[in-house]
Every structure is written in structure tokens, then in C-alpha cells.
Amino acid sequence: MLRDARLVAGKDLRLEWRSRVTIGQVAPFALLVLVLFAFAFDPDSGSLQRAAAGLFWVAVLFSSVLAVQRSMAMEAADGNRDALRLSLLDPGGIFLGKAAAVAVQLVVLEVVLLIGIAVLYGTRLTGAGLLLATCAPATAGIAAAGTLYGVLAAGLRVRETLLPLLLLPVLAPVLIGATQAFDAALQGDLGEGWPWVGLLTVFALLYIASGVAAFGPLLEES
Amino acid sequence: MTTQSTESDRTRDPLPARDRPDDDTVSTSSRATRVLGALILVGLVVLGWVGLVASAADRELGDTVRLLYVHVPAAITAYLACFVTTAASAVWLWKRTQWWDLVASSAAEIATVLTAITLVTGMLWGRPTWGAYWVWDARLTTTALLFLLLLGYQALRSLPADRGVRNRRSAVIGLLLVPNVVVVNRSVEWWRSLHQDPTLFRPDPQLDGLMLFAWFVGWLTMTLVFVWLLFHRFRVGYLRDRVDDLGLEVALAERRAEGAADAADAGLPPAAGAPALAPVFAATQPANAWTFVTLGWLVTWASIGAYALWLVRTGRRLAAQLPAEERRWM
Amino acid sequence: MEPVVHFRSAVALLGRFPALAGVDLDVGRGEVVLLQGPNGAGKTTLLRACAGLVAVVGGEARVLGEDLRLDRRTVRRRVGLLGHATALYDELTVADNVHFWARAAGASRADADGALTRLGLDGRLRDVAVHRLSAGQRRRTSIAAMLARRPELWLLDEPHAGLDAAGRDLVDGLVGEASAAGATVLVASHELERAQALAGRIVTVAGGAVVEDRVVADAS
């Protein structure tokens, strides 16, 4: 299964490297969201700085919908789903591989966005350990849940509109947990943040396990 | 009319039942559901009398406590329905029989209606109690997210798809429903406990005597309503699948007869959605407690009634298209 | 010996439409069978059912000894399907695509390189992104990906479509070699003359059923 996951993740990342959709389109979109937030909140009142953690994760969530849609669109091309079913690849491995590729792209996005809030909102990035410890399970959870709901919505003509409806309510705990942990890190209350990292880890494990188990039956649909 | 007499009618009658769509037997009711329905009506009368007339107003909450006699049972039953959905989805993934898919999807639809009622009555209670229709209370927020999750389930389920595909998809979403709600609830509780304004009034009234009894009758009635709706919704789902199968047999014959090009689509036009809830935002001025109580009770029972009526009518329409042996519920 | 393909009254549905409405078909090992019939007759669904991609919901269906009504997965590893649609990732190169699908099917990189050479894709085209290819070149890439799997049962849906004369001859050569090596081939095609020269049997499909099944007298 891990061999298959590596194969699929390698293929997805190579494809991303060749097409540069995440770097060329999704990352600029995420930065654009940060700029739009600045228009919506008055930059001089300090509310941007106070809300920086939440705005960061909202931008990550919106971008993740695009990344997941991109990840599913490459398999939606005419015969690819058939070919995946005809291959020897373990469905759990396909899930892990696609989720890992999405996660890698999200990490790149998060780096861009961290630089973004540091530069645009003047946020001082303190508590680096907690920031990293938050990003890891939050990214894994978003990627796993996104890939699972992505394949549910893939193959449907309405997937562009259905995926956000299915995915975003599910990701609400990630938004809450990651925002709280980030707030704790940025304000120096490190002790407050760690329980949230635990919640994010539970969420990530729940969705990784569900995805590995459920991907096979879901791939069967034609 | 009792079941015995309907069955003897059926055996004596030379005409197939589908030719007599007005016949009383062409429906999703059975003796069990009629008994249940009668019990529910009794429960409603008792609940109305105890909850609105006989019991006293709460010392702190005043008359608004009467909203809780429908709000809390609706919430508990909505969560019960979600639990049924997840459990039935899990069993479906194991057994893969149509029965469990129908249980799961029926419970999910009822859960959607009850969650909507919970939200509306919760907001109606919140306005006089907290002074706002909406506060970011952990339970309200969880319920709102649950409602969105259920809307996603319904959206996915209503897409045109092969039955096997539809069942697989909804089973996965259904299985994740309760885990999602638990995670959402934990995170929201935790979130609010960090920032909660300590002066926020969040009463958990102490019920005693007739109030406790009213609450109990509300809970019992709502549970019976759930069972009644589940029976009918399950039968509607079953009939819908059977009517689709009828279309399939016709299509197969036509395909074999080389008339394949334009096989008649014997499927039904899409059924109307769940009944819309009555608008409740008309009144923005604070009014006295009884306005909100009346509105809450009306919304609850009117929407359940409309939903039940829609189920029964859809059931009749579908049953009329099937031969008699397809809808023997005993 | 058990036939490679054994269908009895097989029914398969596309949504609610019975694309196969009772197919009877037996194909022995090493045979090359031409499927012909009008558009919408059910040829493609029959090939996809043989590959275990479409569920057979009525009748009997056995392929390579596996009962498709009980298990559609095992057979998938042993067949090669060349569909209408090319299963290729547009942004990846020809070699990347063939290597990925070969390794996904448990074949080695050497198998993939062999298939690329056999299809004449080892030169300049090897490192070209698929979206820059012509339709015929994409077709060749798909065939290479299928060839690298070393299938026991070849399911070819319009294999000649979009190919130039050299490409068509190449496909015919590959089919001949596969058959000689003991593989079984089902070809759906409208190129009757070309396919007839190749096939030992011609099966006519219409209305989701086999309506005629005849042996070609002068099959080689």
C-alpha cells in the first residue's frame, strides 16, 4: 500500500511540477484572499493583526478546496478512472498518495501565506514550534478529508458546487482548532495551544483511516 | 379499515389495485402505523394541555419554558435520527442490502426536518431569553453545522446516479455523520469555553412536577412521531425503488425487442422537496413570551404535519403504480 | 478446457438502461474475435463488462475462470483494455505516462521501455508532454501502456481509430503476435475489411445481444 501511495504521490507531484497550477494559480489566489480581508477589515484598527490566525486558516481552507478539485480533475479525464480500477494499485494506497500530494501542496501554500500575514498584516511569527506542530496535523486532516469528499463528489457533473458544501462543514473543527492553536502561538500562550494540536491529530487520524477504508468502494463508481 | 378487511377485499376484487388509485389500501399505512398515529394524536392532545395550559410558568424563564417542551424533544430525536443513519450506514457497508440503505436515508431525511425544527424553535426561544435569535452557543452552533452536513447528504443523495453508486456514496457520508458531529461538538464546546462571556445567561431549568411530565410527554410523542415517519419514509423509498425497477423491466424488454433507441422512461418526475418551514423572521420587535411559544409550537407541528402529509401522498402515488403484492406491509 | 470468455444471458445496466440485454458468447484461448454492430449496439459495454468494469447483474459471466458476478477485481489485473478514451495525464510526458501505468499494473520499467520501443515512441516523442501529441500519437501511447501490462485478454475498442496506415499495420501485427503467444483478443471495430483479415470469428451485436456468430473460413 505504501509503495502504491508513493507511486501515486510521485505522479501527482510530477504533474503539479509540470503544470504549476498550485504555484501559479492557487497560491496567488490565497494571497488575493489575504488582500481582500485587508479591504474588509480596517488595516489601521488592529483588527487584522488580531484576526490574522483565523484569516490565515480561512485562506488555507478556501485554497484547499481548489487544490482538491485540481487533484480530482486530473483523474476525471476520460479513461483515467477506468485505468486506475484496472491497475493493481491498492485503493487505500491511491487515497494516501493523492492525499499526500495535496498535503505537500498545502504546505507550500501555508509557507506562502505565513510570509503573507507576516508582511501584509505585520504579524510577528512567534512560537515557531507550536506553529509547525499545528500545521502538520491540520494539513494532514484537510488533505485526507478533502481527498475523501473529493472522490465522493468527483464524477458528478456538479462537483464544483457540491464539494465545498460537503467539505467545508466537515472542516469546521480544523478551522477552530488550528486558529486557536495559532492564536496561542502568536500571543505566546503556548500551553493553551497544545490541546488543540491533539484535537487536530484526532481529526487527521479519523479521516486518514476512513479514507483508506472507504476509497475502494468509492472508486468503483463509474 | 382493518388490515384483514383490506386483504380480503384485495383477494375478492378481480381488478388489479393499480387501476383503482383512489382505493384506501393504496398507501404506505398499515395497522401498526395507524395505531402509532392514534397514539401520537393522543400524545399531542395531552402535550398541548399539559404543556400550554396545566403546567405553570418557570420561575426564571417564564412562559418561554413551554417552547422547550417541543424544542428539546425535537433536538433529542434529531440526534437519535442521526445515530440511526450512521448505524444503518455501517450495517449497509457490511451487509449491502437495500433494507439498510432505506433505513439510513429515511432517518437522514427525518433528521434534516427535525434539525431544522430544532434550529427554528431554538432561535425563537433565544430571542426572548437571550435577546437575540442567534448566539454562538456551543449546542446551537453544533446543530447548525449538523444541519449543513445533513443538507450535504441530501444534495448528494438527490443527484441522479445508479442505485449502487448512490447507496455507496450515501453510506460513506452517513457513516461519518456522527463522528463528524462529535468532533464538531467537542471543538465548539471547547472553543466557546475559552471565550464565553461568563455573564451569558444559559439556563438549564429545573423541571419538576407537571413541567417534568410535559417534557416527558413531548419526548415520548416526538419519538413516536419519528418512528411513524420512519415507517412511512422507508415505505416511500421502497416503493420508489420498486417503481424504478418496473421501468427497468420494461426497458429490458424493449432493448431485447430492438426498440432500444428510445426506451420509454417509466421513471417518475422528481418528487417535491421537503416542505419549507414557515418564515419566522417577520417579527423583529421583542414581543411577549406567548408569541414565541405559539410560533414555535406552530412551526414544529405544522412542518411535521406537512412532511407527514407529503410522505403519505407520495406513498399513495407510488403505490398506485405497483401491483398489490408489492405493498403488503405485514 | 474452459473458455476465456463465457457469457450466458448476461445483462448489464448503464444507469437504468440495459446496455446488455442477454448476451451469449464463448471465446476460447488464443482466438481473435471481431465484434461488429451498429452504434449503441452494446459492443463497448460488452468489452467493459469483460474487463470487470461494468457489473453483470443477470445471467452468467465468467472471464479467465473468474465468476464476474462474485468477483470483478481479480480479472482486472489480467486484461488489457484499449478504450475510446485515452487514459493519459496530459501534462506528463509519454514516458512518464507509460511508466506510471506499467508500474501501477505491477510491471517493470523494462517492460514499459520495451513497449515504448515497440510502438516507436522511444525517440523524440518519449519526453514530449501528452497534450502536445496528435490523436494518433496519443493512441500509440495508450497502446504502449496496455502492452506493458502483458494482458492475457486483449479488449480493443476501435483500435484503428485515429491511426495512420503504419499505425494500423502495427496494431494488426501486435494482435497477431499476442494471439500466437496464447493471448485472446476481442476487437470491436467498424473497419470490417481490416479486422476481418485479422479475426477468426465475427460476432454481430445488436440491441444488447449477440445476433450472429460466424467463423471466418479462411482465417489464418
How would you characterize this protein structure?
The complex is a heterotrimer of chains A (222), B (330) and C (220). By secondary structure, chain A is mostly helical. The longest helix of chain A has 30 residues, at 47-76. Chain A is built from nine helices and no strands. Chain A is globular. Chain A has one domain. Chain B has one domain (31-194, 209-248, 273-327). Chain B contains eight helices and no strands. Chain B has helices spanning 3-12, 31-54, 65-95, 98-130, 138-157, 163-195, 209-256, 289-319. Chain B is globular. Chain B starts with a helix and ends in an 11-residue tail after the last helix. Chain C is α/β, with parallel strands linked by helices and 220 residues long. Chain C has one domain: P-loop containing nucleotide triphosphate hydrolases (Rossmann fold, 3-Layer(aba) Sandwich), CATH 3.40.50. Chain C is 30% helix and 29% strand. In chain C, a hairpin with a 2-residue loop joins strand 4 and strand 5. The model of chain C has no long low-confidence stretch (mean pLDDT 87).
N-to-C terminal Cα separation of chain B, in Å? 15 Å
Oligomer: heterotrimer
Main beta sheet strand tally, sense and closure of chain B? none
Kindly report the average pLDDT value of chain B: 77
Strand content of chain B: under 5%
Count of individual domains of chain B: 1
Helix proportion range of chain C = 25-40%
What is CATH's topology name of chain C?
Rossmann fold
DSSP, total strands of chain B: 0
Low-confidence runs of chain C? none
The CATH superfamily of chain C is P-loop containing nucleotide triphosphate hydrolases
Cα gyration radius of chain B (Å): 23 Å
- Segments of chain B where pLDDT lies below 50 for 5+ residues? 1-24, 196-202, 259-286
Overall CATH class of chain C: Alpha Beta
Q: What structural class results from the helix and strand content of chain B?
A: mainly alpha
Sum up the overall morphology of chain C in one term: globular
Q: What's the end-to-end separation of chain C, in Å?
A: 22 Å
